[in-house]
Amino acid sequence: MFEKFWSPEVDLMVGDISLRVGHFDWPEWIETVLNPGRPVFSLSLTPRPYRSEGYLGDKSGEKRYRDVGDLLFYPDGITFHGRSSGGSQRILICSFDKARLTRLSPIAEDWKNLQIDKAIFIDDDRLLGTLRRIAQEVLNPGFAHETLIESLVQTASVDLLRYLEQPERGQRKTSGGLAPWQMRRIRERVESRTDSPPTIGELARLCAISPRHVMRGYKQATGATLHAYVEQVRLARAKQLLLDTDLPMKSIASSLGFSHASSFSAAFQRAMAMTPSAFRLLHRR
Known about the structure:
alpha+beta, 5-stranded antiparallel β-sheet, about 280 residues, about 40% helix, 4-stranded antiparallel β-sheet, single chain, Jelly Rolls, about 20% strand
């Protein structure tokens, strides 16, 4: 049902591995239900829509929705429920036979053995880096690209099982966490389109608590650090400015709160393994 929103760029098969790169042009508001027959990695190559949420499993409920990251993993046979505010999104879809995982470890036979709730917001740098490299190889294949892709998917499979075996860092705690109104204020300020990201002190004042309390409470509520969240949103904003505008690097750096274009370039390269200029050149339509 989603093919009508899909504009393909590249379709590639490497053994059992299916690799697709293209654009989804989603309606203004969309809700999705997916139940893939094979394991699937989904990597967003451009910023996800402003509001992107989802959960895995059959039980419904508003409270089950969580923020979705740039990298998701859809386990085969488990329903994914998603919703977003819509818009254009460039994406890599990488699916493969489940035997790749079960040959590595018998625990992959049953997803109940793993922390699958972590799969919709994968924040593991190794997995992100590997999938981004796969995307680059699909878009710009080089010497022995099939051999390299096969190796990278195998590496991603190992790192995925390691990641899903670890205890859920994002398990929510109520003791010592933040109230819903405090979480709402943090989200509204961090995701507002102002000239620079907020400081921890500013967010603490918005929540009427100390900086130490807001950092501790946010991590207890989400499993992630407040600094990482601020940087994630700033990175998404950087991608959007690079793709949707012709602003020079100096202007983009300033709008994101960097004092120099070189500081912005270094931070972007650490996160994306490529310079802002290379990202703009690679992903512009």
